[in-house]
Design a protein that fits this description.
Helix content: 40-55%
Low-confidence stretches: 1-6, 306-311
Number of domains: 2
Distance between the termini: 54 Å
Mean pLDDT: 94
Length: 311
């Protein structure tokens, strides 16, 4: 009787090992994928090795190890360098390679990259993620995938390795449009949660009590649930989305809406409080720190923060 051949772990590359990419790598390693990764920071590469993955010396070297790459990059400049720089993915990616692009970037930037990669026989999928770093750590994110459907189908099991759900949304770019809409709501809901916590404090309502009961009622939202504990404890680090990084996302949403001549009154009103957080020196704090901005505006006197409430 013939023995069954043991199936080899599937090789996957992770380009960018920050808050999000690092979480993807950890979940995929746990799901028995063979993971190689690249990040310009040596500490991030060392962290991947400790998890059981291997670290590549460059994006080009990473592309030489696998035909499926998940990219999670913080800016247009990082995206351009990682894909098309002298040691970028495009320099060595083989025909048939699929890049699952999860970053939040202007749609025109992704579309240009899609065309440049297609000329080399490489498929770029537009797959932005809905969820914070804390949600990524808990595998509680949702992917809005768009682009070549056959490539998406081939990658479905891979996406399931680090996301709670993945939706195929159609033509390339549809995923990014949905991400911009989702982030518009996140921007507003995060600020509304902060406003509610400040009102509760001014009214003399215990923040832990407020979080517990509001979360269970009609006034809750995912941002209230996820960022409420940070606001209740007034501890905004470690950040799951840094204020300075989120400024990029806010700018993209604003430009997208303006290009469509679509009014966004609540989003536009919200933006100034994130700007105020950045000016106040909160660049590396979580965006929940808009709570601190509102507390100052409300004239709430600081007192020792209470312990973080139970979720």
């Amino acid at each position: 009787m013939a023995t069954k051949r043991k199936q080899q772990p599937e090789a996957v590359g992770i380009l960018g090992l920050g808050i999000m990419g690092g979480a993807y790598a950890r979940h995929l390693i746990a799901a028995r994928f063979e993971i190689a990764g690249y990040d310009p920071l040596p500490a991030k590469r060392a962290a991947l090795r400790r998890l059981g993955g291997s670290a590549a010396a460059s994006p080009a070297a990473l592309a030489g190890t696998t035909r499926r790459i998940v990219s999670s990059l913080p800016s247009v400049a990082a995206f351009e360098a990682a894909l098309f720089g002298p040691d970028g993915v495009a320099a060595s990616a083989r025909r048939g390679t699929v890049i699952i692009e999860t970053s939040t970037l202007p749609l025109a930037v992704k579309e240009c990259a899609r065309k440049r990669l297609a000329a080399r026989g490489v498929t770029l999928l537009d797959c932005p993620v809905s969820g914070t770093g804390a949600q990524a750590a808990n595998k509680d994110i949702v992917i809005y995938a768009s682009g070549e459907q056959r490539a998406f189908t081939r990658c479905r099991a891979l996406l399931a390795g680090f996301a709670r759900n993945a939706y195929y949304c159609g033509a390339f770019g549809t995923g990014s449009k949905l991400k911009f809409i989702a982030n518009l709501l996140v921007t507003i809901h995060n600020l509304s949660a902060a406003e509610a916590f400040v009102l509760a404090e001014r009214a003399g309502v215990d923040a832990q009590l407020m979080y517990r009961v509001i979360k269970d009622g009609a006034g809750s939202s995912r941002m209230f649930e996820v960022r409420g504990p940070l606001m209740a404890s007034r501890r905004y680090r470690p950040a799951t989305m840094k204020v300075d990084i989120y400024q990029k996302d806010i700018g993209i949403i604003g430009e997208f809406a303006a290009s469509l001549d679509c009014p966004t009154p609540l989003f536009s009103a919200s933006k100034r409080y994130y700007d105020a957080a950045l000016r106040a020196g909160h660049a590396k704090d979580d965006t929940a720190v808009v709570h601190a901005v509102l507390r100052k505006l409300a004239g709430v006197k600081s007192a020792p923060a209470r312990r973080k409430p139970k979720r």
